[in-house]
C-alpha cells in the first residue's frame, strides 16, 4: 500500500513520465508489487527552504513495514532520484516516513491486517 507524495517548487515538464519512474523506483526500493504503489506529484508550488526559492521538495513515504534499513536506503536513493529529476540537491528537501499498521489500511473492501 505504499503511497509516495512529492511536493516541489520545480515545474515538472512531463508528469506522466515522472510519476511512472517514481512508481517503478518505489516498488523496487520498498520491495512491493508495483500494483500496490500509489504516487502523486504537486509541482510548481510556492515553496521556500532555508529562506531560498531554489529547487526544493518535500517527500512523503507512507507504507506498511518501513524498517530502519529501508528508510536509510530510500533516503539516499530517493534523494538521488529527486536531485536528478528536479535538480534539487539532497540538502534542499526532507523525506518524511510514515510507517503504518496494516489494520489501518483499507483495500478491496477489507484491511491488510
TrEMBL record:
The protein's Enzyme Commission number: 5.3.2.1, 5.3.3.12
GO molecular function terms noted in the UniProt entry: dopachrome isomerase activity; phenylpyruvate tautomerase activity
Catalysed reactions, as listed in the record: 3-phenylpyruvate = enol-phenylpyruvate; L-dopachrome = 5,6-dihydroxyindole-2-carboxylate
Protein name (record): L-dopachrome isomerase
Keywords: Cytokine, Isomerase, Secreted
Similarity section: Belongs to the MIF family.
Record flagged with keyword Isomerase: yes
Main subcellular localisation: secreted
Coiled coil regions in record: none
UniProt subcellular location: Secreted
Top EC class of this enzyme: isomerase
Superkingdom field: Eukaryota
GO cellular component: extracellular space
Amino acid at each position: 500500500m505504499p503511497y509516495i507524495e512529492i511536493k516541489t517548487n520545480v515545474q515538472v515538464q512531463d508528469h506522466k513520465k515522472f510519476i511512472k519512474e517514481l512508481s517503478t523506483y518505489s516498488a523496487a526500493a520498498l520491495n512491493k508489487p508495483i500494483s500496490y504503489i500509489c504516487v502523486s506529484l504537486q509541482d510548481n508550488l510556492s515553496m521556500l527552504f532555508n529562506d531560498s526559492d531554489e529547487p526544493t521538495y518535500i517527500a512523503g513515504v507512507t507504507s506498511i513495514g518501513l524498517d530502519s534499513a529501508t528508510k536509510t536506503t530510500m533516503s539516499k536513493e530517493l534523494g538521488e532520484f529527486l536531485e536528478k529529476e528536479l535538480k534539487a540537491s539532497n540538502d534542499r528537501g526532507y523525506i518524511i516516513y510514515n510507517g503504518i499498521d496494516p489494520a489501518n489500511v483499507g483495500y478491496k473492501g477489507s484491511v491488510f491486517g
